[in-house]
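Deliverable D2.4 — example input (structure tokens):
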């Protein structure tokens, strides 16, 4: 095992090689020049990385630092995605997963049922991480969550529990009459290892008013993460793009994440998530049709800009194959990403936009994707401790298929 240690640190930014310095100087872009030395950027400078810098130079710089920072170890974890309820009163326009209270398709699983699902997955797949999230269900008392955590940890004692978004933590606190600190401390004592990254889309009030007006504000979202970090609970952060945002909104999101990491370190990874319109309300709007950026270059520029703007602060940028698709995720691995997230057995939220589950991927598939992108494949845990190198790789066209 290669131990990266779950503790928080400020990474030293390697000096850029001469070829990269020369390439960057030729662009005349001061923002890019600052970024390759790890200097913090303001939102307009991050926006320039996304929109103005020559694509090949941006890609070369981001890929160099991704591989240099991670020692050319590309990674994923073996994880189960489990949801405890789809009941939610927040009604986000981009979400096809939630159901309002009383809906015929609404469900709330008992802690015992969730534990059974986890136990079966742990026995079958040797999972290293339980990724558990749900909706904002006003009917659930605090002891539902405490029993849920307790039983899930007992069902898979060897796995890390990465659970609850900052949005869920805030809602649970308000709904049960507790403070965010009290909820986080209680969950930590019961075995919560890390927070998931969901609960925000773009950390910008202007965008949130359009796509999720009932959600907590970006400032409140960040305060939950800050409090978690101060209590020793590390977290992840997503960034959902490709809907109604402009590049400056993406830039503000990355900037606010870096500022929080400087103030209260604790982020494990940034996960850019492409919006999947599917059967969502947002995907049917005229505004989405007019504003959505569908070209793959936009995705890759965001990944690359995130790598460079967070250099020295957050080492891990995830190519989230669940939302990007396999090919674009593989391309992201050459544009600043170093990780594929995980197997995500039974992923349910993004899958809901298409009305079907992805079912997840096997480790050999993810290992092959990494290998083809020029990385050494490694299986990791939640905190990016590298555990072992997979021994087998499987080309997609060689996977066994079910006969028709």
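Example output (designed residues):
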């Amino acid at each position: 095992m290669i131990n990266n240690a779950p503790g928080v640190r400020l990474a030293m930014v390697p000096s850029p090689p001469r070829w990269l310095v020369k390439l960057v100087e030729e662009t005349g872009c001061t923002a890019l020049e600052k970024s390759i030395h790890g200097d913090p950027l303001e939102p307009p400078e991050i926006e320039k990385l996304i929109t103005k810098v020559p694509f090949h130079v941006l890609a070369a710089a981001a890929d160099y630092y991704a591989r240099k920072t991670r020692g050319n170890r590309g990674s994923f974890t073996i994880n189960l995605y489990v949801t405890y309820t789809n009941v939610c009163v927040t009604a986000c326009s981009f979400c096809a997963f939630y159901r309002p209270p009383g809906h015929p398709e609404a469900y709330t699983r008992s802690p015992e049922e969730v534990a059974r699902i986890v136990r079966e997955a742990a026995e079958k797949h040797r999972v290293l991480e339980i990724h558990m999230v749900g909706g904002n269900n006003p009917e659930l008392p605090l002891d539902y969550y405490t029993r849920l955590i307790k039983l899930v940890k007992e069902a898979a004692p060897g796995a890390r529990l990465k659970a609850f978004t900052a949005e869920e933590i805030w809602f649970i606190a308000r709904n049960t009459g507790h403070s965010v600190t009290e909820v986080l401390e209680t969950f930590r004592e019961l075995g919560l290892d890390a927070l998931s990254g969901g609960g925000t889309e773009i950390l910008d009030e202007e965008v949130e008013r359009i796509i999720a007006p009932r959600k907590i504000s970006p400032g409140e979202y960040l305060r939950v993460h800050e409090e978690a970090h101060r209590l020793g609970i590390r977290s992840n952060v997503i960034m959902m793009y490709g809907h109604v945002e402009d590049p400056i909104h993406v830039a503000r999101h990355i900037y606010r994440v870096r500022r929080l990491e400087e103030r209260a370190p604790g982020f494990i990874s940034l996960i850019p998530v492409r919006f999947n319109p599917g059967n969502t309300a947002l995907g049917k709007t005229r505004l989405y049709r007019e504003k959505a950026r569908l070209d793959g270059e936009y995705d890759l520029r965001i990944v690359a800009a995130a790598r460079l703007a967070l250099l020295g602060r957050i080492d891990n940028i995830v190519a989230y194959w669940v939302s990007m698709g396999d090919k674009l995720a593989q391309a992201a691995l050459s544009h600043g990403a170093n990780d594929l997230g995980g197997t995500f057995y039974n992923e349910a939220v993004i899958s809901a936009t298409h009305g079907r589950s992805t079912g997840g991927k096997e480790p050999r598939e993810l290992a092959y994707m990494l290998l083809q992108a020029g990385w050494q494949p490694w299986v990791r845990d939640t905190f990016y401790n590298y555990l072992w190198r997979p021994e087998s790789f499987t080309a997609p066209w060689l996977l066994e298929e079910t006969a028709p």
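The longest helix spans residues 247-263.
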